[in-house]
Amino acid sequence: MTVTDAVAGAASKLKAAGISDSLWQARVLVAHVLSLKPAQLYAADNRQLNLSAQIKYFILLNRRLSGIPLQHVIGEWDFYGRTFRVDGRALVPRPETELLVDFIISSDLPEKPRIADIGTGSGIIGISLALEIPGSAVTGTDISSQALELAAENRMLLSAENYSALNCNLADDLAGKFDVIVANLPYIPTGEISVLQPEVKDYDPALALDGGIDGTLLILELVKKAPDKLKPGGLIVLETCDGQKNTVSGFFADGLWAEVREHDDLAGKHRMVTARRR
């Protein structure tokens, strides 16, 4: 079996199973089997898969066909140019979340900023910031001990020595004040979780999805606590979803905040609200 055969066979079966982006997913699977990046397959079309690789290929393909998310099947996913360990202990990384990292890196920060990543999950945001801003001290928090175990594994995997994590609710146990608070908290309304794609509702932790009646329950709770945790001029960066920008922006109308801004992602959908502590 050549790489071309493996990709074509997987794409055909994935498409027949109703899985979107079947060709792309097939390339990701085959690349993972061969310890390559998908782009590297173009130079390996005629490469033969040995018996061990073929066995792994069929095992992974069957797992994907059973409905397990692609990210869980291969056990890793790229975020901000780095490969993170991924599994059911935390939310699967979404490319749109890179917008938060972009914004913080391009913001006016002190030379050695203290950054809090609230609801750190697998650590993708906090670890990315720790590595992109070498002088920073990044603390992640999460209420899930399982998510924190995964974040610790990613910290070791990527040698992010200036990232640490704390088991607590939101910012409750954070000591001192921070230059940045960033959070990708659950923002799906409770009533909408049952209609999410099976790959999301059945495999992402419910704790990482459920944002309460309107999806903003935890976001509001964090905004109420943030003034006591931020230095004057400190930045708060929140991932939200389409339809929530007016509600979330309204949380900052108490006179404690300046530069309240709403941001769209590359698809033109609302994605983020940011503000600075007065």
The unreliable regions are: none
What would the average pLDDT be, to the nearest integer? 97
Return the CATH architecture of the largest domain. 3-Layer(aba) Sandwich
CATH superfamily of the largest domain: Vaccinia Virus protein VP39
Head-to-tail CA distance between termini: 63 Å
Q: What is the helix fraction of residues, given as a range?
A: 25-40%
Proportion of beta-strand residues: 15-25%
Say how many strands there are. Answer: 9
> How many separate domains?
2
Would you spell out the secondary-structure blueprint of this structure?
Elements: H1 3-16, H2 22-33, H3 51-65, H4 70-74, E1 76-79, E2 82-85, H5 98-105, E3 114-118, H6 124-132, E4 137-142, H7 145-158, E5 163-167, E6 178-183, H8 198-201, H9 217-225, E7 230-239, H10 245-250, E8 257-264, E9 270-277
Helix pairs in contact: 1-2, 1-3, 2-3, 5-6
Q: Can you characterise this structure?
A:
With 278 residues, this protein is an alpha/beta fold. It has two domains: 3-66; 76-277, Rossmann fold (3-Layer(aba) Sandwich). Helices cover 35% and strands 20% of the residues. It has helices at residues 3-16, 22-33, 51-65, 70-74, 98-105, 124-132, 145-158, 198-201, 217-225, 245-250, and strands spanning 76-79, 82-85, 114-118, 137-142, 163-167, 178-183, 230-239, 257-264, 270-277. It is elongated, with a radius of gyration of 20 Å.
